[in-house]
Design a protein that fits this description.
Layout: H1 24-30, H2 34-44, H3 47-54, H4 62-72, E1 91-93, E2 96-98, H5 117-128, E3 132-134, H6 142-148, E4 153-155, H7 162-178, E5 193-197, E6 214-218, H8 230-271, H9 280-308, H10 317-345, H11 347-350, H12 359-365, H13 374-380, H14 382-387
Parallel strand pairs: 3-4
Antiparallel strand pairs: 1-2, 5-6
Helix pairs in contact: 6-7, 8-9, 8-10, 9-10
Length: 396
């Protein structure tokens, strides 16, 4: 059975460098299964760390052997045929919906094996929308885990009977206080609220975003609280629509800059008897990045359309990565296109009093990479990039 949470999505190109792992194919060839990774870990990490992580309860690790035997007894029988859509693996448990009926079990001190392992596991589970369980002897506090994995966090609580279970009660209290998955979306009518500005917004003419500070005062009734959890609304509508609409708008800005630069090159060529102006090669470069941008937006729309029809499809790890990477790629490609268009115009592009001014395009597009900062998006995706399959296929 295919797991849509791990389905490979078609992209307009491979993401590498800071937004992907260029060695993924090589690593997958060397370590195609957990057993291969285990063999390598035995040689790679300190002996005490391997024995700690690899061991289990019982004489001669009897518990581990029973688990391996049970898993090895399961046979997967392939069924060949045409499937109009992949089966859903979603499951609802204790009022929360997850993308798969599996999760990250509590582990004692995984950071002994790999520094920061707890954070990597929590980030990957949050993005994949599967349960993540922080162990009592994990490598980070429950407060930190709640910040990283607010929608999927579980907590394993050991029994500490001394002092009237004081330690256990304290951990339980902290775990409950740290929970941050109670965000909701509220619909207010204009008469229900007032906004008081607390700070201004002066950003060199930036029009793409506005982050003025406000004091919100509102009142309403319980029926105005949307029953759907906010995180599901965010993942199914707010985030994908924002990235798609922004990317499309940036493509429009880049297209406008390209058309203006092309008009300049044509006029300059006519005025000089057919000789191209010095900046003409930059117009070609602008066309290349503009076409790449167009392909990225089309691929993002295709990803959305494929996943939007499935329950929870847009919360799958690869779908979220694809749409987040679209925002990063589109903002940088659009900025590169406008910069090339400006260089094609030469001094005429700098003149605000001329027909080929690029100032407005430049002001609007340079804010794109920091509207939900690209660096933050890439940093939050690090663990998921390591855990997911890259788009190695040209089909989906």
């Amino acid at each position: 059975m295919h797991d849509r949470a791990a389905a490979v999505t078609a992209q307009h190109r491979l993401f590498a460098g800071h937004s992907g792992n260029p060695r993924y194919a090589e690593l997958h060839r060397h370590y195609p299964s957990i057993d291969y990774l285990r063999r390598r870990a035995r040689r790679r990490i300190p002996h005490f760390a391997f024995e700690y992580a690899d061991g289990g309860a019982g004489n001669d690790d009897a518990g581990i052997r029973r688990n391996w035997a049970a898993l090895a007894a399961i046979e997967l029988v392939p069924r060949y045929g045409v499937m109009p859509s992949l089966p859903s693996c979603d499951v609802e448990l204790f009022g929360r919906r997850y993308c798969a009926p599996i999760g990250v079990a509590p582990m004692g001190g995984p950071a002994i094996v790999w520094p920061g392992a707890d954070r990597c596991l929590a980030q990957a589970a949050q993005l994949a929308r599967i349960p993540y369980t922080l162990g009592t002897v994990g490598g980070m506090t429950v407060e930190a885990a709640a910040q990283i994995a607010p929608d999927v966090l579980w907590f394993q609580l050991y029994r500490f009977p001394d002092d009237g279970h004081a330690v256990g009660f304290d951990l339980a209290r902290r775990a409950e206080a740290a929970a941050s998955s109670d965000q909701v979306l509220v619909a207010f009518q204009r008469s229900d609220y007032s906004l008081e500005a607390t700070r201004g917004w002066d950003t060199m003419g930036m029009r793409g975003t506005c982050s003025m500070g406000y004091m919100l005062r509102a009142s309403g009734v319980a029926d105005q609280v949307l029953p759907e959890p906010y995180e599901r609304i965010h993942n199914q509508t707010m985030a994908p629509y924002a990235h798609l609409f922004w990317s499309s708008a940036w493509q429009g800005i880049a297209s406008g800059a390209f058309r203006r630069a092309r008009a300049f090159v044509r006029q300059a060529s006519r005025n000089s008897g057919g000789r191209m102006p010095p900046g003409a090669p930059h117009l070609t470069r602008a066309r290349v990045t503009l076409e790449t941008l167009r392909g990225a937006v089309q691929a993002g729309l295709a990803t959305f359309e494929r996943n939007a029809a499935e329950p929870g499809g847009l919360t799958a790890m690869n779908a979220q990565l694809a749409l987040n990477f679209l925002k990063v790629e589109a903002s940088e490609l659009a900025a590169a296109t406008v910069m090339s268009a400006m260089r094609a115009c030469g001094l005429a592009g700098y003149r605000n009093d001329g027909d080929f001014a690029m100032g407005r395009f430049l002001r609007d597009i340079l804010s794109a990479p920091i509207m939900i900062n690209n660096d933050r998006i890439l940093a939050n995706a690090e663990a998921a990039v390591l855990m997911s399959e890259p788009p190695l296929s040209l089909s989906h």
